Amino acid sequence: MPGEGPPYVELADLEQCAGLALGSPTRFGNMAAALKYFFDGTSKLWVSAALAGKPGGVFTSTNLEYILRNMGITGLFVCGVYTNECVSTTVRDASDRGFYTTLINDGCATVTPELHNATIRTLKDRYCRVLTADQAVKETRQAVTSE
Predict the structure, then answer these.
(1) Could you write out the DSSP letters of every residue in 34-66?
(2) What's the pTM value of the predicted model, to 2 decimals?
Protein backbone atom coordinates (compact mmCIF):
# COMPACT_ATOMS: atom_id res chain seq x y z
CA MET A 1 0.00 0.00 0.00
CA PRO A 2 1.50 3.36 -0.96
CA GLY A 3 2.35 5.84 1.79
CA GLU A 4 0.09 8.41 0.20
CA GLY A 5 -2.43 8.58 -2.62
CA PRO A 6 -5.09 5.98 -3.34
CA PRO A 7 -4.51 2.29 -2.59
CA TYR A 8 -3.84 0.13 -5.64
CA VAL A 9 -3.12 -3.36 -6.88
CA GLU A 10 -0.89 -4.54 -9.69
CA LEU A 11 -2.19 -6.65 -12.59
CA ALA A 12 -0.36 -9.69 -11.20
CA ASP A 13 -2.28 -9.28 -7.93
CA LEU A 14 -5.55 -9.65 -9.83
CA GLU A 15 -4.39 -12.76 -11.69
CA GLN A 16 -3.46 -14.43 -8.38
CA CYS A 17 -6.52 -13.42 -6.36
CA ALA A 18 -8.87 -16.13 -5.08
CA GLY A 19 -12.03 -14.14 -5.84
CA LEU A 20 -12.93 -10.86 -7.40
CA ALA A 21 -15.90 -8.75 -6.35
CA LEU A 22 -16.27 -5.41 -8.11
CA GLY A 23 -18.89 -2.79 -7.63
CA SER A 24 -19.67 0.77 -8.53
CA PRO A 25 -22.50 3.13 -7.79
CA THR A 26 -24.08 4.26 -11.02
CA ARG A 27 -25.34 7.60 -12.18
CA PHE A 28 -27.89 7.45 -15.00
CA GLY A 29 -26.66 3.95 -15.86
CA ASN A 30 -22.98 4.89 -16.10
CA MET A 31 -20.34 3.35 -13.88
CA ALA A 32 -18.01 5.53 -11.83
CA ALA A 33 -15.03 6.90 -13.76
CA ALA A 34 -12.61 5.07 -11.47
CA LEU A 35 -14.19 1.70 -12.27
CA LYS A 36 -14.19 2.45 -16.00
CA TYR A 37 -10.49 3.33 -15.71
CA PHE A 38 -9.93 0.04 -13.90
CA PHE A 39 -11.66 -1.98 -16.64
CA ASP A 40 -9.79 -0.10 -19.37
CA GLY A 41 -6.47 -0.68 -17.62
CA THR A 42 -7.10 -4.37 -17.05
CA SER A 43 -8.66 -5.23 -20.42
CA LYS A 44 -5.73 -7.50 -21.30
CA LEU A 45 -6.60 -9.75 -18.35
CA TRP A 46 -10.30 -9.90 -19.25
CA VAL A 47 -9.63 -10.61 -22.95
CA SER A 48 -7.09 -13.35 -22.17
CA ALA A 49 -9.56 -14.92 -19.68
CA ALA A 50 -6.96 -14.68 -16.89
CA LEU A 51 -9.78 -13.65 -14.54
CA ALA A 52 -12.22 -16.35 -15.66
CA GLY A 53 -13.42 -18.61 -12.90
CA LYS A 54 -12.78 -16.10 -10.11
CA PRO A 55 -15.91 -16.51 -7.98
CA GLY A 56 -17.84 -13.46 -6.81
CA GLY A 57 -19.10 -15.06 -3.59
CA VAL A 58 -15.81 -15.05 -1.77
CA PHE A 59 -16.35 -18.04 0.55
CA THR A 60 -18.45 -20.18 -1.81
CA SER A 61 -16.52 -22.97 -3.50
CA THR A 62 -13.15 -21.37 -2.75
CA ASN A 63 -10.31 -21.97 -0.34
CA LEU A 64 -10.26 -18.28 0.62
CA GLU A 65 -10.94 -18.92 4.30
CA TYR A 66 -8.06 -21.39 4.43
CA ILE A 67 -5.73 -18.88 2.76
CA LEU A 68 -6.81 -16.00 5.01
CA ARG A 69 -6.36 -18.09 8.15
CA ASN A 70 -2.90 -19.28 7.07
CA MET A 71 -1.90 -15.68 6.37
CA GLY A 72 -3.08 -14.65 9.83
CA ILE A 73 -5.74 -12.33 8.40
CA THR A 74 -8.57 -11.80 10.86
CA GLY A 75 -10.30 -8.71 9.44
CA LEU A 76 -11.93 -8.00 6.10
CA PHE A 77 -13.15 -4.93 4.23
CA VAL A 78 -16.16 -5.82 2.05
CA CYS A 79 -17.59 -3.85 -0.88
CA GLY A 80 -19.41 -4.72 -4.10
CA VAL A 81 -22.75 -5.05 -5.86
CA TYR A 82 -25.56 -5.82 -4.92
CA THR A 83 -25.59 -4.66 -1.30
CA ASN A 84 -28.64 -6.77 -0.47
CA GLU A 85 -27.40 -9.90 -2.25
CA CYS A 86 -23.73 -10.87 -2.73
CA VAL A 87 -22.37 -8.21 -0.37
CA SER A 88 -24.80 -9.13 2.40
CA THR A 89 -24.03 -12.83 1.95
CA THR A 90 -20.29 -12.22 2.09
CA VAL A 91 -20.59 -10.06 5.22
CA ARG A 92 -22.75 -12.62 7.01
CA ASP A 93 -20.54 -15.53 5.93
CA ALA A 94 -17.39 -13.72 7.08
CA SER A 95 -18.96 -12.83 10.41
CA ASP A 96 -20.21 -16.40 10.93
CA ARG A 97 -16.64 -17.59 10.29
CA GLY A 98 -15.30 -15.25 12.98
CA PHE A 99 -13.72 -12.55 10.82
CA TYR A 100 -13.78 -8.94 12.03
CA THR A 101 -15.83 -7.61 9.14
CA THR A 102 -16.12 -4.04 7.91
CA LEU A 103 -18.61 -3.06 5.21
CA ILE A 104 -17.54 -0.12 3.03
CA ASN A 105 -20.82 1.77 2.71
CA ASP A 106 -19.90 3.96 -0.26
CA GLY A 107 -18.24 0.98 -1.95
CA CYS A 108 -21.55 -0.83 -2.33
CA ALA A 109 -24.70 -0.29 -4.35
CA THR A 110 -27.97 -1.94 -5.25
CA VAL A 111 -31.04 -1.14 -7.33
CA THR A 112 -32.44 1.57 -5.03
CA PRO A 113 -30.97 3.74 -2.26
CA GLU A 114 -33.76 2.58 0.05
CA LEU A 115 -32.83 -1.09 -0.38
CA HIS A 116 -29.13 -0.27 0.08
CA ASN A 117 -29.81 1.66 3.29
CA ALA A 118 -32.16 -1.01 4.66
CA THR A 119 -29.50 -3.67 4.09
CA ILE A 120 -26.84 -1.54 5.78
CA ARG A 121 -29.14 -1.05 8.79
CA THR A 122 -29.72 -4.80 8.97
CA LEU A 123 -26.02 -5.69 8.82
CA LYS A 124 -24.59 -2.89 10.96
CA ASP A 125 -23.65 -3.92 14.48
CA ARG A 126 -25.12 -7.40 13.98
CA TYR A 127 -22.63 -8.73 11.46
CA CYS A 128 -20.21 -5.90 10.77
CA ARG A 129 -19.21 -2.35 11.38
CA VAL A 130 -19.77 0.18 8.60
CA LEU A 131 -17.20 2.71 7.35
CA THR A 132 -16.78 4.92 4.30
CA ALA A 133 -13.92 4.19 1.90
CA ASP A 134 -12.06 7.27 3.18
CA GLN A 135 -12.39 6.08 6.78
CA ALA A 136 -11.15 2.59 5.84
CA VAL A 137 -8.12 3.96 3.96
CA LYS A 138 -7.26 6.25 6.87
CA GLU A 139 -7.57 3.39 9.36
CA THR A 140 -5.45 1.08 7.18
CA ARG A 141 -2.74 3.70 6.75
CA GLN A 142 -2.61 4.23 10.52
CA ALA A 143 -2.31 0.49 11.12
CA VAL A 144 0.41 0.07 8.48
CA THR A 145 2.51 3.00 9.70
CA SER A 146 2.24 1.94 13.37
CA GLU A 147 3.77 -1.48 12.68
Answers:
(1) HHHHHHHHTHHHHHTTTTTT--SSTTTTS-HHH
(2) 0.61
